[in-house]
């Protein structure tokens, strides 16, 4: 049976409700063919010729607005970022912190980068190999959704560490356990077969939004009570970058759930520029924004004692 990604998505929408009408891949039943498709023309890569670009998009959409390549780039960016960060900060003697605190600070930045890289890698694997067969489509789709949970957990742990870095080990451990429990529960739900159907994309948005609230709001509230001012909170945990991350990802999620803009231009954005493309690109941008905030906090704490903001130390 010749299964296409369009067939798999029929439960989600048809025709103008979906907006994506052509350029789907058929099942290849070959890993090599699936890998080669990364360099071919379909709506997961968005690759198109100059003439096609001029005809359909007036050269306003660039080829990097694509599912596979956007997250391959994001994965490489954060993997290289881990290496460069650890090479740059390899000498503890230059830090104002104790060796243990210095190591934890480095570990938190590396954990964030690693969780983002894992998420992007699993996403790229799914979008690359999902046409190999229906069975592999299901398996890789599970990994894709688990990657979202992984990056949210990693972001939540790094956020918790910065917000509560001067609190007692008991408080930190309590938050880590809570974060892990919420992420595990969300992961279990994502593995349910019905949850992964395209028609539940809005429900997935609600679930991940709930997980985000569970992961981040308690530690932010606790830090707000301890620090007592927005500028102090931003200095301690990079609040602006976190708000930027949440805002950018929320925008991507809304576009994805509402199928904007392809629902307005059915068939015109099949190769690139549809909501799934925008969501992928925005997740990369949001992750980069948050990384810059973490590096800002790290560089600042590298020079001064980090717990001078805390009233509970």
Automatic annotation (TrEMBL):
The chain crosses the membrane at residues 68-86, 107-126, 146-162, 174-193, 205-224, 236-258, 278-298. GO terms for molecular function: metal ion binding; signaling receptor activity. It is a multi-pass membrane protein. The keyword NAD does not apply. Zn(2+) binds at residues 127, 276, 280. Its main location: membrane. InterPro entries: AdipoR/HlyIII-related. It is found in: Membrane. GO terms for cellular component: membrane. Keywords: Membrane, Metal-binding, Receptor, Transmembrane, Transmembrane helix, Zinc. Belongs to the ADIPOR family. This is Adiponectin receptor protein 1. It comes from Purpureocillium lilacinum (Paecilomyces lilacinus).
């Amino acid at each position: 049976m010749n299964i296409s990604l369009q067939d798999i998505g029929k439960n989600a929408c048809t025709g103008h409700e979906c907006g994506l009408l052509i350029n789907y891949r058929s099942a290849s039943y070959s890993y090599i063919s699936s890998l080669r498709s990364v360099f071919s023309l379909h709506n997961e890569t968005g690759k198109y010729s100059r003439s096609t670009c001029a005809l359909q998009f007036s050269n306003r959409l660039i080829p990097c607005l694509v599912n596979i390549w956007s997250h391959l780039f994001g994965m490489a960016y954060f993997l290289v970022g881990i290496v460069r960060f650890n090479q740059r900060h390899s000498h503890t003697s230059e830090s104002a912190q104790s060796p243990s605190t210095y190591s934890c600070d480095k570990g938190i930045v590396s954990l964030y980068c690693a969780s983002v890289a894992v998420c992007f890698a699993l996403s790229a694997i799914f979008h690359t190999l999902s046409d190999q067969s229906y069975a592999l489509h299901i398996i890789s789709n599970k990994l894709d959704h688990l990657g979202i949970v992984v990056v949210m957990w990693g972001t939540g742990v790094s956020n918790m560490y910065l917000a509560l870095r001067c609190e007692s080990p008991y408080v930190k451990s309590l938050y880590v356990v809570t974060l892990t429990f919420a992420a595990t529960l969300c992961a279990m739900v994502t593995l349910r077969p019905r949850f992964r159907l395209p028609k539940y994309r809005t429900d997935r948005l609600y679930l991940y939004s709930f997980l985000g609230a569970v992961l981040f709001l308690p530690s932010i509230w606790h830090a707000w009570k301890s620090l007592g001012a927005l500028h102090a909170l931003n200095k301690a945990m990079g609040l602006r970058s976190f708000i930027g991350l949440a805002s950018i990802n929320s925008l991507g999620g809304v576009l994805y759930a509402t199928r904007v803009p392809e629902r307005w231009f059915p068939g015109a954005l099949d190769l690139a520029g549809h909501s799934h493309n925008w969501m992928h690109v925005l997740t990369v941008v949001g992750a980069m924004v948050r990384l810059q905030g973490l590096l800002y906090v790290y560089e600042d704490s590298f020079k001064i004692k980090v717990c001078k903001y805390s009233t509970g130390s």
